[in-house]
Amino acid sequence: MAQALLKWVGHALDLLYPRNCRFCTTPLTETQVGVVCPACLATAKPITPPFCRRCALPFSGQLDAQIECGYCQDLEFHFSSAYAACRAEGVVRDCIHRLKYNREIYYLPHLAGWLIDAGRRWIDWAQVDAIVPVPLHPVKERSREFNQAKLLAQELARAVGRPLWPQVIRRVKATPSQTRLDARSRRVNMRGAFAIRSAAALAGRRVVLVDDVFTTGATLDACASILLRSGTTDVIALTVARGV
């Protein structure tokens, strides 16, 4: 009854205050989900082969073989592979920033849609035991009022039918913002940032680790490292966007 009432109210508001695309102001129809029109969504740049098999960095050209970028050759990531839906540019980057920093939750359907499409394309979910979101520190989560990685992981879990384990990892160190840090400083910043709540639940499990953006991989790697030390057999990283 309550859901029907909310739906009716939503239709009434659409009649009084028609929804427009938040980027180009094109009117949206009742059946269109979210707040961005199809034309603006189509400007997203999906990551398709060839891309680095370890960090999802896209390459130009028509290479067929699995390749590893120069950045990864000098690093020992703890996740076995990483996949990202789109380049962190344009409409994708703006949707992420508006969700995270402006609390505009109505961008979530678009971000989750990109994430789910990439997850279905690249991951064999029959081989995955659970989905784990990268946690925020409690202070930051209270300030932001949500954890965007958890929201994305929830939508992914519903779509692919795998369990969501949102409490497995906890963030125990309130690290400074990584926005202005280089790759090495980000890795240092992440040392000791995470802890495991229950290692017993992870023994022998294969998990997909979810976050919004892969920039240098420092945060995802810190989470993957502690998961492996706690008995997880494999960690795959999956994000909406990849910084390039």
Structural commentary:
Helices cover 37% and strands 14% of the residues. The strands form 2 sheets. A 4-stranded parallel sheet has the order 1-6-5-2. The protein has a two-stranded antiparallel sheet with strand order 3-4. It is of the alpha/beta class. It is built from 9 helices and 6 strands. It is globular and about 50 Å long. Strand 5, helix 9 and strand 6 form a beta-alpha-beta unit. Helix 5 crosses helix 7.
- How many helical stretches? 9
Reported for the largest beta sheet, the result is: 4 strands, parallel
Q: How many domain regions?
A: 1
Q: Which whole number gives the mean pLDDT?
A: 88
Give the name of the CATH architecture: 3-Layer(aba) Sandwich
**CATH fold type:** Rossmann fold
What secondary-structure arrangement, pairings included, does this model have?
Blueprint: H1 2-16, H2 38-41, H3 70-73, E1 81-87, H4 90-102, H5 108-122, E2 130-133, H6 138-144, H7 148-160, E3 169-171, H8 183-189, E4 194-196, E5 206-214, H9 218-229, E6 234-242
Parallel strand pairs: 1-6, 2-5, 5-6
Antiparallel strand pairs: 3-4
Helix pairs in contact: 5-7
Short characterization:
37% of the residues lie in helices and 14% in strands. The protein has 244 residues and is α/β, with parallel strands linked by helices.
